[in-house]
Amino acid sequence: MSVAELPGLLPGLLRYDADTGPRPARRTPRDWLVDVVLFLLAIGIGLTAFDQGGGAAAREEVQLADLAAGATACLALWWRRRWPTALAVAIAPLSIVASSAGGAAVVMMFTVAVHRRFAVTMAVAALHMVSGSLYYLVYPDPELSLRASIVAGVLLVTAVTAWGLFVRARRQLVLSLRERAQQAESEAALRVEQARHLERERIAREMHDVLAHRISLLSVHAGALEYRPGAPGHEIAAAASVIRSSAHQALQDLRDVIGVLRTQPVTDADPEGPQPTLDDLPALVEESRQAGMRITFDDRRDDDAPAPPATIARCAYRVVQEGLTNAHKHASGSAVRVTLEGNPVDGLCVEVWNRMPVSRMGAQSEIPGAGTGLIGLAERLALADGRFEHGRTPDGDFRIRAWLPWPA
Q1: Domain boundary pick from 127, 160, 186
Q2: Is the full-model pTM beyond 0.70?
Q3: For a designed S-S bond to 381, which of 24, 169, 183, 386 qualifies (C-beta 3.0 to 4.6 A apart)?
Q4: Sheet containing 294-299: which strands, arranged edge to edge?
């Protein structure tokens, strides 16, 4: 393995936090490979410095001491992950008198630059600049002047420190990008969950509006059969037919919503079922008429006006549906008037009016309700930038009135 391949291996040094020290983890095969390469690199640099420096020209006992000091410094590299700053400080004065410890000093400077804060890195680099300058005072270079040797040593320390800072910055950038990617995935999962929750709320509101209306029709027809057991056969057959068709439609709607709730998380590409429009209002009114309700439907919209947006038309349909459902529940047998008027300039106005029953028996509803229909309707209209009013009129009747914007 050549020295040119080291930049790809040195980022593996970052197996622990750059500020708080090493993490208690076992070395991976990559860590072992990096440690072995750096150990061999430190030995190679140290032997080269020993041969070219003053150590080789010294007495034999001085040479043995120099090599022993260099070997000790290289062996200390195996603990550089645990004590990088302490070992770098300890090797700095040793490299003044032991030229073979120069390789270990270079590796420790790089390690500190990669794993420690900028202030600590600069302090260690300054210490090694001083020790390098003192080394050239002890072992002068025969080919360079003292000033040139000191400048070369300072440039070497600067290059090694800058390389370590670059590796640290690159690793921090990678960690930051990884954290951002994980955060983006978490936010995307949260948005999907919120979309699923909102879709289920929307389905629940839709099913309340639809099933409440159909079940109220079932209750009215069943009540008519109960109070008129001797009714003609054709009336009983007609009532039974309405009950059967309404029950079938209610079950179909319930089956549809259960099928949607069992599907995967909702996305923008998920199709919706057919939604009601203003053209479906006559059929809705006719269903209530078949249930025995006296209804007057007055459509005062301009004949030449374009159709309102689908969301506005659906809201208007739900207003009429909720008004008829409340009339079934609380004012059975009373007259009901449904009025629809407006244009793209003035907006769309929907009104459902019914007389309150005179008798106490008629005022009591036998159809259970959750009491949230009008609340949900008000919320639906608020989301559509509309206005909603409901309550008793000065004459004692009950009125539901909604205004919806009708963009041209």
Answers
A1: 186
A2: no
A3: 386
A4: 294-299, 335-343, 347-354, 398-404, 387-392
